[in-house]
Structures are given as structure tokens and as C-alpha cells.
Amino acid sequence: MDSTRQPVAVVVGATSKWQADGRNTKLAHGRVIDDSDLPVGVRWGVGGAIAQKFAQEGFMVVLTTRQAANAAALEQAIHAQGGAGMIVELDLVLQASIAKAFTTVRDTVGDPDVVIYNAGYLEGRDLPPEKELLEHFPVDMFDTAQHIASRGPFLVAKEVLPAMRERGAGSFLMSNNAASLRGRKRLTGQSLYYPRVMMRTLAQVLTEEYSEHGVHVANVVIDGLIDSPGTRALPRAQQQPEVVMNPVKIAEAFYYLHTQDKSCWTHELQLTPFATKPSF
Question: Tell me, what DSSP letter sits at residue 83?
């Protein structure tokens, strides 16, 4: 890598569905949450914390989101902290949108040195108890889950891994959850998360294919309730604050992975709050 070039980090899914005006916040609470008294590091969940961390470490951070307005406040926060950041619109359901977004990244700031795939979805959370079984699950919701959890990271990988392979360096890190460890029944109020198993499998496949080319691929299992405006207002988070995960510390784990020495790479990292038992 050219030592004079500012390194580039792309955060796919830089904002959270649990941010103050996020989709899941509105679904769970029926309204937008006031986040004015929250630390800036947790206002946009894991994606926002990762973006701020890499900006603080000197990276040009590219924030991807379906609509630029969703990440405008995060971009402003990065600039206020003295960091460099820009927003690129990207819809993971559309291959053309993914290709266009990464063309914009390459043309504007160059090939990314690290890509963090942090996209989330909430399809299934608004289904009633009598619709828990898969026979009732709408196909369009299943398609969205597959797009975000499986097809999306595959298409993003195709956009960024060739340049990393040719350069002999780079990191492709996936933000995942405990549902990626094995198939689990979807309970009322939960998303259809079993497609996340395919995201984990993809990380394993890419590790086998690209490690020898100098590309670090890792699956990060975030095993718990992540602090954000919407989750902080949930009864469970208020009654058991010890089970809530600090996204700023999660972001530090992602930066640690990117900076690991090649002689001892971690390819799967599971993060679990001390007060809960790890998922298996």
C-alpha cells in the first residue's frame, strides 16, 4: 500500500435499525427516541461505533446506507471529531446498486483497505405469535433476509476481494450474531436469522480461499443485546444493564482484527457480555 495514501475503510450498514429514528426503534416503541443525552459512540449502534473508531485511527471512512439522510448525523459526528468520512448510498437487495456504490468508492477514494459488512434487517419481527412457524413466513421477507445475510456479502466480496488479493493485503470482516452458529427457531418478535449461518459459512470459505493471498477474513459473532437508543429503552436493558454490549468496545475488537499480525490471524471472534452464557 502507498504509505502516502490515506487508508480507506468501508462500513456496509453504517447505521442501526435501533438508532433513535431507526426502523426497529419505531416498531418496538411506536415512536422516535430522544438520543440527545447518549454518548456519541453508541447513537448509531455497532456500525456507527466502527466508523468512528476507524476514523479516529486515520482512515477515510465510507458510510454506506440505503438513503444518505440515514447517515448524515453520523458523518457530521465523524467530521466534528476531526475524522474523514463520506456517505455512499447502497441497497444490498440490488446488485446494480452494490456495483455502482463500489465504483464510486474506487473512483473517489480508491480501493478499500478494510471492509466491514454490518448490514442488518428486521424482517419477521412484526409477525404475531400464530405466525412463528416457517410455513407462515412470507416469501418476500425470506428473500430480504437472504439478500442481506447471504447474497449481499457474496456480492460485496466480489467487489473488493480482487484488489485486496492483487495487493496482498486487506481485511473483510463480517458482523454476525449468535444465530449464525446453528439453526434456531424464530420466536415472536425476532427476525428470520437462520440465513446468517450462510454468512458464517461464506466467511469460512473466503478464509480458505483468500488467506494465502494476504487477505484477512473474519466472522464476528456479536452474542448479545447491543447498546443503542432503541435497545437502551427496552425493559430488559433497563432492568439488566449488565447484559448490554458497548458498541464502542465492539468496534475496538474489529480494529484489533484488522491490525493483527499475519502470523496469528483470528478468523472467528465471539463477543459475549460477562453476565450471560455464551451461545453455541
Answer: -
Q: Which residues pair with 268 in a beta bridge?
A: 219
E strands, 127-233, where?
171-177, 216-222, 225-226
* Run of H or E residues at 145: helix 139-146
Residue with cell 487477505: 215
pTM over 0.90: yes
Of 189, 159, 145, 57, whose CA–CA distance to 99 is shortest?
159
Give Cα separations from 257 to 8, 42, 81, 98 (angstroms): 16, 20, 23, 25
Distance CA 225, CA 236 (A): 9
- Three-class DSSP category at 62: strand
How many Cβ atoms sit within 10 Å of the Cβ of residue 140?
8
**Which is it for strands 216-222 and 171-177: parallel, antiparallel or unpaired?**
parallel
- Between CA 178 and CA 226 the distance in angstroms is 13
* Per-residue pLDDT tens digits for 49-82: 999 999 999 999 999 999 999 999 999 999 999 9
d(CA 110, CA 103) in angstroms, rounded, equals 9
